[in-house]
From TrEMBL:
SUPFAM superfamilies: Sigma2 domain of RNA polymerase sigma factors (SSF88946), Sigma3 and sigma4 domains of RNA polymerase sigma factors (SSF88659)
Keyword DNA-binding: yes
Family (UniProt): Belongs to the sigma-70 factor family. ECF subfamily.
Protein name: Sigma-70 family RNA polymerase sigma factor
Domain of life of the source: Bacteria
Highest classification ranks of the organism: Bacteria, Bacillati, Actinomycetota, Actinomycetes, Pseudonocardiales
Domain RNA polymerase sigma factor 70 region 4 type: 108-160
Matching InterPro entries: RNA_pol_sigma-70-like (IPR039425), RNA_pol_sigma-70_dom (IPR014284), RNA_pol_sigma70_r2 (IPR007627), RNA_pol_sigma70_r4_t2 (IPR013249), RNA_pol_sigma_r2 (IPR013325), RNA_pol_sigma_r3/r4-like (IPR013324), WH-like_DNA-bd_sf (IPR036388)
Length: 172
């Protein structure tokens, strides 16, 4: 991708994603100027990686939120370079902010990954893990054999693991 294509790509990406990213950033910073700075840095990173990013893909959205989260953590760390005592007090109080960001990003990546599964794989995981049904109950509800439920569960979990790894969530 040449420089002109990169600029067009990032401009289009900015128009589509900036409002959601800004709201996400502002929710954690409560500082308009800082939120704008973080947003700008994320799009500079996107511009630098434009040749490696897939336009209009779910992976691109996950990458944007992961890059935003990482930059927010960097900003938070830079702001907490204080004395050891003050730093320890802030670490004890602040993980909720970082955890909230992680949890939101992970929930979004998980939701997107589940949506990308085939309907058969999604259905078996929903029955087994979200409805807490046994293999026999799942087989009965889906109208398939127990062996099919086991096989689909195995393959669905493998596919989900790949999607989560692509989304930046460690699965091992």
């Amino acid at each position: 991708m040449d420089e002109h294509d990169s600029e067009v790509f990032v401009r289009s990406l900015y128009e589509q994603a900036a409002p959601a990213l800004y709201a996400f950033i502002y929710r954690f910073t409560r500082d308009r100027a800082l939120a704008e700075d973080v947003l700008q840095e994320v799009f500079v990173r996107a511009w630098r990686r434009a040749g490696h990013l897939e336009p209009r893909s779910d992976a691109l959205r996950r990458w944007l939120f992961a890059a935003t989260r990482n930059h927010l953590i960097d900003v938070w760390r830079a702001r907490t370079k204080l004395s050891v005592t003050t730093y320890c007090e802030q670490v004890a109080a602040a993980p909720h902010v970082v955890d909230d960001v992680d949890r939101i990003v992970q929930r979004r990546v998980l939701t997107d990954a589940i949506d990308e599964l085939t309907p058969k794989h999604r259905d078996v995981l929903m029955e087994r893990y979200f409805q807490c049904r046994s293999i026999a109950e799942t087989a009965r509800r889906l109208g398939v054999s127990s062996g099919t439920v086991k096989s689909r569960t195995y393959h669905a979990l493998r596919a989900l693991r790949v999607l989560l790894d692509e989304g930046g969530i460690a699965t091992r």
